[in-house]
Amino acid sequence: MLLLLRWFHFHQHDFASAAADCDLASADEHHHAHAHDHAHLPEQALGAMGLFAGLCVHTVVDGIALGAVLIGSAQGASLAGVGVFLAILLHKPLDALSIETVMGARGWSSTSRWTAGTVFALLCPLTAAAFYLGASALVPHDGLLPASLGFAAGAFICIALGDLLPEVQFQPRPAPTDATLLLGVGVAFALGWLEPAH
Q1: DSSP string, 54-95
Q2: What is the pTM of this model?
Q3: Which domain, by its residues, includes 120?
């Protein structure tokens, strides 16, 4: 997927050419361009509710991961729990700031922004607590931790592949980066062959 994103550029994060095209239009053409609501501007493409909903789904996955490592910590894997907790703790304020900023720019009232912030702040700990308390009753205990950690890891990889890695296309020389990526995938497969059978 990374190679497709780098070579075919279908996930574009650069809006400079669209803005330049709009700036080059004459006054009459520019007035006509306003009739189509400037859909090419990134500010118009993302609504506050879409951002809130997307980050809430991401936060639920964070809560599942946190609940899973809490179960793992009870089984003796406490260091992983500290790492997941710190990762969530350090990036959640930035997510909340994104929601607050977009809602403020869209003209939402302070009460609506405060309500959204409160819901967002409580979502991760409530999901973690619900997963920790309820999941062991639904799934056999020996398969719970691997299944839930696999789900959370898959969701985070999906987020990385869909949004973070497309930024790599802006690097000037793709060949060494692509070779390094392929080498890393090869090393991961080789390590899988070296693991002992369970």
Answers
A1: HHHHHHHHHHHHHHHHHHHHHTT-HHHHHHHHHHHHHHHHHH
A2: 0.58
A3: 2-8+57-187
